[in-house]
Specification:
This protein is of the alpha/beta class and about 190 residues long. It has one domain (about 5-190). The protein is about 40% helix and about 25% strand. It contains 5 helices and 6 strands; from the N terminus they run H-H-E-H-E-E-H-E-H-E-E. It has helices spanning about 5-20, 30-50, 70-75, 120-130, 145-155, and strands spanning about 60-65, 80-90, 100-110, 135-140, 165-170, 185-190. Strands 1-2-3-4-5-6 form a 6-stranded mixed beta sheet, with helices on both faces. Helix 1 (about 5-20) crosses helix 2 (about 30-50).
């Protein structure tokens, strides 16, 4: 996974999600609408990753809104907004069942669209620094205080992080309904 891979996945999923922003379902408050768009985008990212990392090849992609992993794993989400794992199998203690378990983690993604709350950003950043994933991606809002702060501070904090650490900057969901296609910025932080 490299910058080109992430830019492609993020841009494709954002393009799909913008259609919802242009013709949204009626929502009473702007903040709720933006939260719905943000959640929908995370699910679209996970959908794109499911195409890239199919279950039949031994991969699983977890996200909060996806129930396809529930029968075998009994959960939708593995601690992060999106998780991509390679699986292996082990017999259960009784020997009657074969269980799928994570062999290794290819990717963890966290997204945080608070445009002024660096604490919310640092919480998600901290989760990713503790991750053993080979690739980590933190998505933050572009064009404001958080982007400027994150570009200046976060690379300093993740020099010793394991795996590749990427930062992505995307316009806030409130800006997705505009005429111009939102620009996705991506940088390697370590």
């Amino acid at each position: 996974m490299d910058e080109g891979f992430f830019k492609k996945i993020l841009a494709q999923s954002l393009r799909r999600c913008r259609k919802d922003a242009i013709a949204p379902k009626p929502v009473s408050k702007a903040g709720i609408k933006n939260a719905h768009l943000s959640s929908a985008w995370v699910e679209r990212i996970a959908d794109e990753l499911r195409r890239q990392y199919p279950e039949k090849s031994g991969y699983r992609v977890f996200s909060g809104g996806y129930k396809g992993n529930r029968p075998e794993f009994r959960l939708n989400e593995y601690l992060f907004d999106v998780t991509v794992i390679k699986t292996k199998t082990v017999k259960s203690a009784s020997g009657r069942t074969v269980l799928k378990v994570p062999q290794n983690t290819l990717l963890h993604i966290e997204s945080e669209f608070h445009s002024r709350d660096s604490r919310a950003s640092i919480v998600d950043f901290g989760k990713l620094t503790m991750s053993a994933a080979k690739n980590k991606l933190l998505v933050l809002p572009s064009g404001g205080l958080i982007e400027k702060w994150a570009k200046a501070e976060l690379p300093k904090l993740c020099h010793d992080c394991s795996g590749k650490f990427f930062l992505a900057f995307v316009p806030h969901p409130s800006e997705w309904a505009g005429r111009e296609e939102p620009k996705v910025q991506l940088l390697r932080a370590n």
